[in-house]
Design a protein that fits this description.
The protein is 47% helix and 0% strand. The chain has one domain. It is globular, with a radius of gyration of 14 Å.
């Protein structure tokens, strides 16, 4: 895995700290998807309730830095929130940790790209 710190988020984002060591350490969208599938809905809902109200602040903060050169704390915050988007899909879209009607454990193919 990429060598990101797993214990320090930027000031003001302490509420997301419990998720930094897990969601923030995942390297790929596929890893995030598979990780989400192992949670109970109650756990996902708790995460969602903490993260969702803070998303505007997270992205306002992230936008202060160039995407290709995020400082370590901001990169960890960004990766943590990207991982928590998997939580939002379960809560807002699927109504369960896994994709409905998809075999367990299914795999997806998503590519992250930075556009210049």
């Amino acid at each position: 895995m990429t060598d990101f710190p797993t214990s320090i988020l930027p000031r003001g984002f302490n509420a997301l700290q419990p998720y930094a060591a897990t969601w923030g350490a995942l390297e790929t969208p596929e890893n995030c998807d598979l990780f989400r599938q192992h949670f109970m809905m109650e756990e996902l809902k708790d995460s969602y309730d903490i993260a969702a109200p803070r998303l505007d602040a997270v992205f306002d903060h992230r936008d202060k830095f160039p995407m290709n050169d995020l400082p370590a704390q901001e990169a960890l915050l960004y990766r943590t929130v990207l991982g928590l988007t998997e939580v939002a899909m379960a809560i807002e879209g699927f109504g369960q940790p896994r994709v409905p009607c998809a075999p367990y454990s299914h795999k997806i193919a998503i590519e992250w790209a930075v556009h210049k």
